[in-house]
Write a structure and sequence with these properties.
Elements (H helix, E strand, L loop, with lengths): L2 H16 L5 E12 L9 E17 L5 E4 L8 E3 L13 H13 L7 E7 L9 H16 L8 H16 L6 H8 L4 E6 L5 E5 L6 E6 L10 H20 L13 H6 L6 H25 L3 H19 L4 H11 L4 E7 L6 E6 L4 H16 L4 E5 L6 E4 L2
Parallel strand pairs: 3-5
Antiparallel strand pairs: 1-2, 1-12, 2-5, 2-6, 3-4, 6-7, 8-10, 8-11, 9-10
Length: 397
C-alpha cells in the first residue's frame, strides 16, 4: 500500500481501538541493504535504500501516566506499561522497541508521559528489511510530535538515538545502518554512508532501468536474541586486534583500517575462522566503494555483479547466509534481466534482494515461487519495491 494508505490505516485502527481520532502519526520505512553486509559496526561503508514498505504509529497523549499500545500485526492485544518504570516484556517483545525510544527520549529531557498508540505495518517482521528500525524511528517521530520539548536533534542525531534504544534497551548490538536508512531515505536513490565519519551522499538508482525485488524466505531471524550476530561482531573485533598487533604503524582500530594487502600478506597466520571474517569485511568495504562508483557512472550491470560477489562472500567467508537465501539467489541469477542478487540484513534467515530490469518482474517472481516451492514446500514472500522517502511525522490536531 502507499504511505498515505498506511497512515490512514493507522488512523482508522487507532479510532477503532480508542474511540477518537489520534493527535499525530509517525511513519518510517524499512530498508534494504544493497551492499555493505556487517560493515556498519566495523566503521566501514554501506550502500542502502529505504523501501516503500514501513510502519505507521498513530497516537495521542493521555493524562494518566500509563502507555496503552496495540498492533494488529502482533495479535492486537492491548499492552500497558509505565513510561517512567520501563521493563522488558517477554510476552510482547515488540513493545521493547517502543520502550527503548521512550527511555532514550526521557534521558534526553523530553519527558515522555502517558500515551495511547496503535502500530500498523506492511513490512515483514524478521524478514531482513529492518522492521525493528522502522518501529524505532516511527515511534520517535510520533513522540517528538506529541510532547513539547527543547531537544535539538538533527536527522543523524535521531538515527543515533534510535540505535541506542536498540542497543541498550532491546539488547541488539546493531550498527547505524538500519536507523540511518529509515531516517534519511530518498525516493529514487540509494544512500552511501561512511559509518566512521558519518558523511553520506545520495546515489541515483534509476527506476526506469532497475527495480528491487525483496524475496523473503519466511525464515525468521532475531538479532536481539543473539544468534550468530553477536558472535560475528566479536570475531570482527578479535580480528581487528590481531591485525593491530601485527601492523602497529597502521593505527588499526577496526577492520575498516585493514587493507586487502594486509589480509593477503598475513594469509594463513591468523586463526582460520577470524581470517574468513576479516576477509569478508575488508573486501566488502572495497565492494561498496566499487558499487557506489558503478551506480554514479550509470553502470547498473556492474553494480549487480558486485552484489552477487557480496553474496558469495557472505556464504563462504562470513557464513551468515542460509540454505533458503542461497536458493533464492541461485534461482534469481539464472533468470534473464537480473543484474545481481544477495543476502540482505543480518543473516541466518530473512531475505534476498534482487536487482532486475523492470520488464522481468512477473517472470522473475514466477520463477522464484516455483523454484522455492519445489525445494522447501512453501512460497517465498515477494515484495516488489523501489527506493523511497525516509521517515516523517504528521500532526493531525
Amino acid at each position: 500500500m502507499s504511505r498515505t494508505d498506511l497512515i490512514e490505516r493507522a488512523r482508522d485502527a487507532f479510532s477503532a481501538r480508542f474511540g477518537h481520532e489520534p493527535e499525530a502519526v509517525g511513519v518510517a520505512p524499512g530498508r534494504v541493504e544493497l551492499l555493505g553486509n556487517h560493515t556498519d559496526y566495523n566503521e566501514g561503508f554501506v550502500l542502502t535504500a529505504a523501501i516503500d514498505r514501513g510502519i505507521a504509529i498513530a497516537g495521542c497523549c493521555r493524562e494518566a501516566p500509563r502507555v496503552r499500545i496495540a498492533s494488529p500485526e502482533m495479535g492486537d492485544a492491548l499492552v500497558t506499561f509505565d513510561p517512567e518504570t520501563l521493563e522488558k516484556d517477554p510476552t510482547a517483545p515488540w513493545t521493547d522497541y517502543v520502550k527503548g525510544v521512550v527511555e532514550q527520549l526521557n534521558k534526553a529531557g523530553v519527558n515522555v508521559g502517558g500515551f495511547d498508540a496503535v502500530v500498523v505495518s506492511d513490512v515483514p517482521v524478521g524478514g531482513g528489511v529492518s522492521s525493528s528500525a522502522a518501529l524505532l524511528v516511527a515511534t520517535a517521530q510520533l513522540l517528538l510530535s506529541l510532547y513539547p520539548h527543547t531537544l535539538a536533534v538533527d536527522s543523524m542525531g535521531l538515527a543515533k538515538l534510535c540505535r541506542r534504544a536498540e542497543n541498550e534497551f532491546v539488547g541488539a548490538p546493531v550498527g547505524l545502518l538500519d536507523q540511518f536508512s529509515s531516517v534519511f531515505g530518498k525516493a529514487g536513490h540509494a544512500l552511501f554512508l561512511d559509518c566512521r565519519s558519518e558523511e553520506w551522499r545520495a546515489v541515483t538508482l534509476p527506476s526506469d532501468r532497475a527495480r528491487i525485488l525483496i524475496a523473503d524466505t519466511r525464515v525468521k531471524h532475531d538479532l536481539a536474541a543473539g544468534g550468530g550476530y553477536r558472535e560475528r561482531r566479536q570475531q570482527c573485533e578479535e580480528a581487528a586486534l590481531w591485525f593491530a598487533a601485527k601492523e602497529p604503524g597502521a593505527q588499526i582500530r577496526t577492520l575498516r583500517d585493514v587493507t586487502p594487502e594486509m589480509v593477503e600478506a598475513h594469509a594463513g597466520e591468523l586463526d582460520p575462522v577470524l581470517e574468513k571474517r576479516a576477509r569478508h569485511i575488508v573486501y566488502e568495504n572495497k565492494r561498496v566503494r566499487m558499487g557506489g562508483a558503478a551506480l554514479e557512472s550509470g553502470n547498473v550491470a556492474a553494480f549487480g555483479e558486485v552484489m552477487s560477489n557480496t553474496h558469495e562472500s557472505c556464504r563462504r567467508f562470513f557464513e551468515n547466509s542460509c540454505e533458503e537465501v542461497d536458493a533464492l539467489v541461485e534461482i534469481a541469477e539464472k533468470q534473464p534481466g537480473v543484474y545481481g542478487a544477495k543476502l540482505s540484513g543480518g543473516g541466518w534467515g530473512g531475505c534476498a534482494v534482487i536487482l532486475h530490469r523492470p520488464d522481468v518482474t512477473d517472470a522473475l517472481s514466477a520463477a522464484l515461487t516455483e523454484g522455492y516451492r519445489a525445494r522447501f514446500g512453501k512460497d517465498p514472500v515477494l515484495i516488489p519495491t523501489e527506493a523511497a522517502q525516509g521517515a516523517e511525522a504528521f500532526r493531525l490536531v
